[in-house]
Amino acid sequence: MKYYVNKNKQPNGDNEVHTLSCSWSPAEHNRVYLGDYASCAPAVARARQLGYNANGCAHCSSACHTS
Ligand SMILES: [Zn+2]
Predict the structure, then answer these.
(1) Would you say residue 6 has pLDDT above 90?
(2) Is there a contact between 4 and 34 (Cβ–Cβ < 8 Å)?
(3) For the chain, how far is it from start to end, CA to CA, in angstroms?
């Protein structure tokens, strides 16, 4: 699964992590490609390495959605 992080923060300060196929996935110019992962956990970890306040999308990455 290809994962992206939204460059724009949510109102609560989170940068949401999405799969490419998620209907809530951000527009191309608003996202950063994280990599191809089997689950959301390494994708969120990668986004945090890049300095994003990453949290899984409630729809496509609910296992990583904590806030
Ligand atoms: Zn999503």
Answers:
(1) yes
(2) yes
(3) 22
In the reported structure, the alpha carbon of residue 12 is separated from the centroid of ligand 1 by a whole-number distance in angstroms of 16
3 CA → ligand 1 middle, Å: 9
Query: What pLDDT does residue 36 have?
Result: 98
Q: How many whole angstroms from 24 Cα to the centroid of ligand 1?
A: 5
Please name the residue that has the structure tokens 């390495």.
49
Find the 67 Cα to ligand 1 centroid distance in Å: 14
Which residues make beta-bridge pairs with 60? Answer: none
Candidates 38, 39, 46, 41; CA nearest to 5 is: 46
Work out the mean pLDDT of the chain and round it to a whole number.
Answer: 97
Instruction: Answer for the pair 14, 53: CB distance below 8 angstroms, yes or no.
Output: yes
Determine how β-strand 15-19 pairs with β-strand 54-56: parallel
Residue 42 has pLDDT above 90, yes or no: yes
